[in-house]
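Hi R.,

As promised on Friday, here is the backbone we talked about, encoded as structure tokens. Could you run it through your design pipeline when you get a chance and send me back a sequence?
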């Protein structure tokens, strides 16, 4: 029997995304007694990235692994943004020895 997904309520697109009741997913000091939100934040910039079917499959498998084995329900965009942040931090810290420089140096 197919599972039916519930639709968000009419007020969901207008929910509060800032202020004292807003809790981001990565806010480890959050008080669990207050209302929780999905942790989604608005991003002002957008890029388009083309990936191979194998890369897209690997990204989706990583998303499912994070959910199944680590209890983290994150979307592909968040995985990509986190990976970019980690790559930039590694480049800043290790320079020419960073994984980014080594990866881009390969054909």
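Update: got your reply. Pasting your designed sequence below so it's all in one thread:
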């Amino acid at each position: 029997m197919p599972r039916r997904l519930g639709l968000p309520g009419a007020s969901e697109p207008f929910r509060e995304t800032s202020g004292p009741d807003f809790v981001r997913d990565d806010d480890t000091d959050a008080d669990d007694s207050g209302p929780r939100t999905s942790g989604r934040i608005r991003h002002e910039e957008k890029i388009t990235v083309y990936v191979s079917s194998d890369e897209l499959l690997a990204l989706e498998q990583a998303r499912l692994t994070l959910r199944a084995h680590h209890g983290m329900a994150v979307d592909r965009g968040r995985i990509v943004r986190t990976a970019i942040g980690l790559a930039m931090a590694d480049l800043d810290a290790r320079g020419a020895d960073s994984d980014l420089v080594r990866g881009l140096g390969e054909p």
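One thing I noticed while checking it: The chain has three helices and no strands.

Thanks again,
M.
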